[in-house]
Specification:
Blueprint (H helix, E strand, L loop, with lengths): L5 E9 L2 E6 L4 E7 L1 H6 L7 E6 L4 E7 L5 E2 L4 E2 L3 E7 L7 H13 L3 E7 L6 H17 L3 E3 L8 H8 L3 E5 L6 H9 L22 E5 L5 E4 L14 H4 L25 H7 L5 H11 L6 H4 L2
Parallel strand pairs: 3-5, 8-9, 8-11, 9-10, 11-13
Antiparallel strand pairs: 1-2, 1-4, 1-12, 2-3, 4-5, 6-7, 12-13
Helix pairs in contact: 2-8
Length: 299
Amino acid sequence: MGKELVEGVVVERAGQKVGVYLPREKKTYRGIPLGKVRKKTRIYAGDFVLGRVVDENTFAIEEVKERKNLLVRPPVANVDRVVIVETIQHPPFQNFLLDNLLVVYDHLGLDTVIVFNKIDLLDEEGKKELLYWEKVYEDAGYDVLKVSAKTGEGIDELKDYLRGQICILAGPSGVGKSSILSALTGLPLRTQEVSEKTERGRHTTTGVQLIPFGEGSFVGDTPGFSKVEALQFMPKEEVRLHFPEFLRYRCKFSNCMHLNEEGCEVREALKRGEISCDRYKSYLKMIKEYVDWLKEYCP
């Protein structure tokens, strides 16, 4: 139809299928890679591409623009913010998984926001636990939001985090990522209930799809996963650099691992209660270390 080279965003990548969204037309075309792109470049959701509209359904991709980042799991490019979705109950919260995700995404240079979903399902014990973990993570320096995809509580506030950016929802299976995406965008998405036996959701998303949302913003639903380890992404000596509460303190040695070193201010802050025992325990578990003195301060 047109000869003009235009820019689009890859909003769907599943198998050989490529979907390219053109903001000007507010329409998604089937993307067909041409020439060098087809032979040499792997295309990911989130890629900004240049090409031409061939017909009313087809967009010829002639160039993939340089990426600012690329996540391997889930495979998506140019991500501005990661919304890490968790639940306190249904399924039960695992802080070590969340702490690993926070460390890895910070290592990759991505902003994160923690979202606790299904707050409408919490019993009294669950509400107390939510308040506890909310304080732990806010004190550590993270933004924490509480929502219910089912009732809509907190969804408007979450929308503010997604405007004008490419965002993805991450977190374990069963926490309601697809339901949150549906609540945000108004689009019906296939979801499944959490298994009562395992309290773990089944994978309901098979590819990476970004949904246009507001002006120049996209939000993605990605396959759930239950395990990621910081040491898969970085040496153990770097993990400490991605705990923001540790960075508030200046130890005697710049390479202090916050274990048994002389003049460790992080250790002293922990003893004073300024750093969460649960967060520090996650740190030790990540780097596979143990310290004798911890049991005196953290039961």
